[in-house]
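Aim 2 progress. For Hydantoinase/oxoprolinase, the working sequence is reproduced below.
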Amino acid sequence: MSLGLGIDTGGTYTDSVIMDISSGSILDSNKSLTTYPDLITGIQNSIDGLDTRLLEKVTNVSVSTTLATNTTLEGKGYPAAMILIGYSIPKGLPTQHVISVKGGHDADGYEIDDLDDPEVIKDFVMYCKNKVAAFAVSSYFGVRNPDHELKVKKIIQDLTDMPVVCGHELSQGLGAYERSVTALLNAQLIPVTNQFIQSILSVMKERHISANLMMMKCDGSLVKIEEALEKPVESIFSGPAASLVGAAHLTKLDTCMTVDVGGTSTDISSLSEGIPIISDSGAVVGGWSTMVKAIKMNTSAMGGDSHVWVQWKPSIGPGRVIPLCYVASQHPEVVDKLEKIKEDRKISERIMDRIIQPVSFFVRSESDPRTLERLNDNEKEILDALSDEPLSIKEIAGITGHHPLMFGNILESLIQKRHISHIGFTPTDALHVLQDYEKWNSEASHLGAEILAEYVKMDKLSFCTHVKKKVAFNIAQNLVSFVAEDVKKEEIEKLMQNSENLRFRLNVPVVLIGAPVEAFLEELKSVIDGEITVPEYYDVGNAVGALVGNIIHRSDVLIRPSAAGSSQYSVFCEAGKMVFDEYGQAVDYGIKFINDSMAEYMNSYGLSMDRIQFDLKRDDIKSETGSVIETRLTGVGIGSPRRSDNEWVKRWNESTGPNEQHGCSSPECAGKDRD
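Predicted structure tokens for this construct:
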């Protein structure tokens, strides 16, 4: 019997399961709260609830997490600097630290401009090094020739020991903007993912768990932890991907849609005939288009811990807060404070926003002392006023002597920088009031509901029912939108709001995963007509999925004439650009490169080529005269070091093909720059 330990760290819970890999049966499971910023405590608590006799026999550990997704959705990635080479700065790039320098290449990999003066780059690096946690570099057509990216990377590494991410290292696809965003998000997520992985390794060492450690990527495949640390952006949808794979395993359904209701977001994805549906384009998260190969997914920033706040009317999200009910279970004095708030005169609606709320509390979080040096005087003053004890808006005003209007923006800044945590009313609190989900201190939830309901002229039960229905409505709307992707979401919303007797029929089974999902089942069925399932172990579905993934590796090679009318051919691949005198030589090199890189990659996982399903596809684009304009070679390998059954592998491989490739392969684009 081979045992595996699956761990999923989400925005709210850290789940763990022990599974018999050979039979797929779950032997034990446990949930605990995710702890910030020190994830170790939450992971320890989750694992400590498992049978120690089984833990001793674990030989494989796999993990997944929604931390990268939630970090991006909430805009809380660590600050990173961006160096763009050869093109102007796009509007809305998610960083304040960005520069564009001369350089870049053309579609054939030839230099179009000399790289800028190194002193310009050095000055920018020195200016940013104490303001950021990592650097990202992206050059125009860097995938056709990464020379300038590598030179800039070397300059940065000579000046600082911070991580440096290059666009060509993450994707071979065209699209300068998407590649730059992918590199930047990856840089912002490196500290988040590193903290998570180091926490897992630390707990494994303390618990004497000697096993291989792997992590689920956002396409439903597994990678070694070393690779996950280098490319954390590929874990952006790790949690939802694990949820999808886990839902299929728990229900034995090979075709279904999965709704994963977490603390920060609700994610919808699907698989067909046992194969996760992969997005034709790169993953889009938090409004950012990337080049990350991921499951096709609809995600919304509404979950069990979304902030419920009022200002003339009830609103939910998009930020996540710590539920009142949970905090009151740790700090009973919060109940007394809520009682006092209820008796006191209300906060004026004119100054209320997402931060300034009558039931908002704030606590100081543990943070890196080095980051405290980057705070301004106003931020330091507010931070000094806070401690481990939850303080209300009125209490902070009393300590600092400032009106809430003077420090609301400061609180928001400190939350984003992870120096403080925000406590407030959530859908989880609403479920506690309605007795649909009771785990912590319901008294705090009741008081919070009463206080907020008064502002919008509702009673607490009506207020909580409204919140519950809004969450269920959001799930239903996103389900329909996921299926009817060509219909505008606003039109779907109008139909759902204005037609009380209208129900939407789904022909594909829907599987609900996540701690509170049972509470929304009936509300969801009132809108959706179809098979909706809540399986056993639904609350730890992500941890299950982390154990049943496979090793997947893709390798692309592009072959094009070196220039118009040239008899030479250029080969573009992960190793860089190569030029050959004959087309046949270029093709032979491309095929050999894919085979060699595939064998090397799979061998690093203990898999020989005869133990994987390998497929090599060739796509030729020819002119009217029959000459080759472009040849694309795509190799895909899939296998599992844990299972001998290759049926899933075969079906997955049959479902993939050239349509998954990035970049344009039309004759019109052969000489056109779309980077």
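Residues 19 and 27 are 5 Å apart (CA to CA). This observation will guide construct design in the next reporting period.
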